[in-house]
Give the backbone structure.
Amino acid sequence: MFPLRDTIPTLRFPVVTVALIAANAIAYFFWQRGGLTLGDPSSQYYACHIVDYAVIPYEVTHPGEQVGAQGCGEPAAPTWLTVLTSMFMHGGLLHLGGNMLFLWIFGNNVEDSMGRGRFLAFYLLGGLAATALQIAIGPDAQIPNVGASGAIAGVLGGYLLLFPRARVLTVIFIVFFFTLLELPALLILGFWFLQQALFGYFELAGPDGQGGVAYFAHIGGFVFGALAIKLFADDRKRRAQIDAGSRIRP
C-alpha cells in the first residue's frame, strides 16, 4: 500500500511541514551531498558524515567513545547533537522521498490541529522518543541511525487518533498490477504500525538482532504520537477540519 493523499483539507498553509520538508531536502542534497541513489558510499565525505552526524546507540550509551571516522576535516559532532542531526539525514533519494511524502500527506493536517509552534515541538519530541526506544532495544549497536521516519511516525500516531475515519487515496500493488482505492486512515496506519512491530520482532529474533531498518524507532515515535496527541492538538480545530472535509465530499 502506498498513500497519495487524504480527504481532510488544510485550513491554513502548513508552514512548518513545508519547512521541515525543505530542511530535509537541503540537508540531503547540499550537506550530505547525496545523489539519486545512496550518494556515494565509497566517498570519504559521504561516509564520514554518516558516521559523524548519525546517532549511534553505542556512542550514546558509552559517553566519550566514538565509532569509526573522526570527522570531515573537522571534529566529529558531539553525541548529543547527533540525536538532532540524524533526524535530517537520509540514506538515499528513495528514503528521503518516501519519508517526505508521508510527512506531507499526514503532517499538514496534524499541524493544522495544533498550530505551528506546537507542531514543531511535537515533531521533534517524536523523533527523540523514536531514538530513545531504538537505543533502549540495542544499546551496544554500532550501526549509524539516520532518517526522519521516527519523527514522522509520531505524526502518524497523532493523525490516527485525530482522524481515524479520514479516507486516504492509496495505490494497491498486486504483483505487476496496481489499483487506486480510498481506504480508512485507521486501516492504512494500523497496518503500517503492525508491519513495524512484526518486522521489529523478526529482526530481534534474527542471528545478530540487528538489521538495516530502525523498526523500533518507528514504533517509539508512533506510540509517542498516539499518547501525546491530546496534549498538543486543539479539539475545536480538529472538528473544524473534519467538518470542512465533510462539506467538500461529493
About this structure: The longest helix spans residues 93-114.
